[in-house]
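Researcher: Here's a chain I'd like modeled. Treat it as a single chain, no partners, no ligands.
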Amino acid sequence: MKITILGSGTLLSGPKRLPSAFLLESGVDQAVLDMGPGILAQVHKLGISPLDIKTVLLTHFHLDHCADVFPLLMNRFLIDPDANNNLVIYGPSNIEDWFETIASTQGFWLHNCLPRVSAIQSDKVEWSGNRIQVCLNDHTETSLAYRFEGQASYFFSSDTGFNEKLIPFAPGCDIGFMECSYPDEEKKSQHLTPSEVGIFAQQAGFKKLVVNHMYPSNDTPDLADKIAKHFGGQIQVAEDLLVIKESIGQDL
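Model: Modeled as a single isolated chain. Structure tokens:
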């Protein structure tokens, strides 16, 4: 699977780091994991047609992770009025309530051609040869971490604090994509620090760690060094539009 970092930062990060989001490509299939403000523009910047995105996966409903979902729907409609019939949006257990609340403010363009909106159930969804698993991560009451199992395995923490129950969900992944919001000296609830990320990655046994969702105070040149005190695998600090294409058998 090829993964492009559409956004590696937060709403405070400035133009070089848009809010955390990922483009997933497997064969001819393309999906986005989270879609905060500015992410639709990143898709266009890559030369990808919004019509090629058939799957949206959401971790939670804070605006920095979902604000561009409805712009995506309108963009697709303006290109092809029937396009949203072949789009599916997966997310937490309350996704239908979230969608209906926002959809109620829109007009015929949406209601005449609705996407399929579905609460994702672990082990019940397969995307392009990858089995998708989810686990509550306690950032919000319904927010999710994702795991993909295919030729390689990938873990996406989304926003979360240090959560012991996520470690049994994440073990042995080839690559772990983890938020790393604040420095250790600025620890805040429901978000991770460099030492916590390193400890989690070490206990989970990741082959490689990619950190994202850095607030400016944690976006420092020595971030990887801080994590390396606790994690012995490869560490990469994400950048917007960074491409990661790795699979089992390659040197991770």
